[in-house]
């Protein structure tokens, strides 16, 4: 929740000067809120040090040691500190699937409430019964719960934008201080830049207006800063390349390109894609890599003709919840160099997917549904570092898998089902603390690993079977002993009874007169 030193170096540095964020020093005492900007910080624990910049910021920006400048900067970001404190009390940001669930539940509740009101209006008395009142109150309470989830998500989203604005604000304050200006009198001024339409764009638009068929347009590397709305009127356009420009937005009118099959907007400055992109029903190839996207619009799921999607080198923290249910024709999905922590469970529905690249992310695990990608041939999960620690057992169901990259993670053992990957030809598990299989087996190659994992699985199954049989035999023997003991008890009881009866009968019999006659 605190600003990342990597993404917001100045803001992170300044926020540390707030009492709640100050660094602990060897001489600091409880309740001491002062901080000496010239005093070097003590060594940080390894877990914290990994989050810090690789350089000391004051070496790059020496004016940050000026107490007056720091004071002004603190005032400039006081809103960030207040918002952070509030969010710390409210909790972490809900994940994307939770937000989608909350939206769906809210829509369902609204519909139920509307139906309830309609029934009341049509009833003869036109009044709510006590039962209806209770049901409505229960729905209203449930509604507030889901609303709070959405509200928390919106607050976190606004906070992230606030961090970006604050970093830019601090940079301007610092630049003004370096230039010798009065820090206290700094005012942010927006530069008004007149945007001129690129000549190539004008030529293309004129050709389209003259009923000249325009099917392919290549405007790559033209330093375009914007695209005119009129571009959306080129109905015949099939291929559009806008890569390597300075575009900050794509106009909503792009939805008018009803024949478009290929769109390349890679290497621009896009922070978001328009929702109208979901109306490009014929789109087959989409490249949005190398931008500043933090999310893909949910509407992208409506581009059901997509075969290739490249969203690498952005800032994506999640993929649309329903992306797998909708993009059933997708064959290649590239999302490397992002901040993805999870794949949505719907990804297992991408039955056509052959290629999945998710290296250099923050994946904390894989959804078990990934095993349903039975046509997947290449899977790259490398360099998720300390986040990826294990693979699901269902990975053994990926029967078409040929190449698997698991390098630079924290995987200790491969799943038992790994031996079922009969088509696997390339395996990279370098830089993992792998124990099973051992390194000497890995060094022998894929076949050795597969054979080892098959044997390991069989050994485990055999051990489980033997244990199960032992438990069954133990139970059976116990039952036999119980029955034998019961039988023996009955026999002893019968013998004892018979003997007692005999002896008792002998004691009560009449004396033989012949034997008892006097001699």
TrEMBL record:
InterPro entries in the record: Leu-rich_rpt, Leu-rich_rpt_typical-subtyp, LRR_dom_sf, LRR_domain-containing
Pfam families given in the database record: LRR_1, LRR_8
Coiled coil segments of this chain: 149-176
GO cellular component: cytoplasm
Keywords, comma-separated and alphabetical: Coiled coil, Leucine-rich repeat, Repeat
Protein's GO biological process: defense response; response to other organism
Superkingdom classification of source: Eukaryota
Protein name: Plant intracellular Ras-group-related LRR protein 9-like
Lineage of origin: Eukaryota, Viridiplantae, Streptophyta, Embryophyta, Tracheophyta
């Amino acid at each position: 929740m605190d600003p990342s030193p990597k993404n917001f170096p100045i803001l992170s540095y300044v926020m540390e000067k707030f009492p709640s964020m100050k660094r602990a020093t060897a001489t600091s005492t409880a309740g001491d809120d002062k901080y000496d900007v010239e005093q070097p910080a003590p060594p940080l624990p390894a877990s914290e040090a990994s989050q810090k910049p690789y350089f000391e910021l004051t070496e790059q920006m020496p004016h940050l040691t000026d107490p007056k400048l720091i004071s002004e900067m603190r005032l400039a970001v006081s809103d960030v500190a207040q918002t952070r404190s509030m969010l710390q009390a409210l909790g972490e940001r809900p994940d994307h699937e939770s937000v989608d669930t909350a939206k769906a539940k809210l829509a369902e509740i609204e519909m139920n409430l509307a139906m309830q009101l309609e029934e009341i209006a049509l009833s003869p008395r036109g009044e709510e019964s006590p039962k209806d009142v209770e049901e409505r109150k229960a729905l209203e309470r449930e509604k507030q719960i889901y609303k709070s989830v959405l509200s928390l998500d919106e607050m976190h989203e606004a906070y992230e934008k606030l961090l970006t604005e604050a970093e830019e604000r601090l940079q301007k304050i610092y630049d003004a201080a370096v230039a010798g200006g009065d820090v206290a009198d700094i005012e942010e001024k927006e530069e008004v830049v007149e945007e001129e339409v690129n000549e190539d764009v004008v030529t293309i638009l004129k050709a389209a207006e003259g009923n000249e068929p325009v099917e392919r347009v290549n405007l790559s590397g033209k330093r375009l800063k914007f695209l005119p709305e009129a571009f959306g009127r080129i109905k015949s356009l099939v291929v559009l390349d806008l890569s390597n420009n300075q575009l900050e937005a794509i106009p909503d009118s792009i939805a008018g390109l009803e024949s478009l099959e290929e769109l390349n907007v890679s290497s621009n400055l896009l922070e978001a894609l328009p929702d109208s992109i979901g109306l490009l029903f014929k789109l087959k190839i989409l490249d949005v890599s190398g931008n500043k996207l933090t999310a893909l619009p949910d509407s992208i799921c409506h581009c059901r003709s997509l075969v290739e999607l490249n969203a690498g080198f952005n800032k994506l923290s999640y993929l649309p919840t329903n992306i797998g249910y909708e993009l059933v024709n997708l064959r290649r999905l590239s999302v490397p160099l992002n901040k993805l922590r999870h794949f949505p469970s719907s990804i297992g529905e991408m039955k056509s997917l052959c290629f999945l690249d998710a290296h250099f992310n923050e994946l904390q695990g894989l959804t078990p549904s990934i095993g349903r990608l039975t046509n997947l041939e290449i899977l790259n999960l490398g360099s998720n570092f300390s986040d990826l620690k294990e693979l699901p057992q269902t990975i053994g169901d990926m029967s078409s898998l040929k190449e698997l990259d698991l390098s630079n993670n924290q995987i200790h053992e491969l799943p038992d089902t790994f031996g079922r990957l009969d088509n696997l030809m390339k395996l990279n598990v370098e830089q993992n603390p792998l124990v099973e299989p051992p390194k000497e087996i890995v060094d022998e190659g894929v076949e050795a690993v597969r054979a080892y994992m098959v044997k390991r699985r069989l050994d485990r199954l055999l051990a489980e079977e033997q244990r199960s049989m032992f438990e069954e035999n133990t139970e059976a023997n116990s039952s036999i002993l119980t029955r034998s003991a019961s039988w023996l008890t009955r026999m002893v009881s019968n013998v004892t009874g018979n003997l007692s009866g005999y002896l008792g009968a002998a004691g009560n019999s009449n004396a033989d007169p012949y034997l008892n006659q006097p001699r």
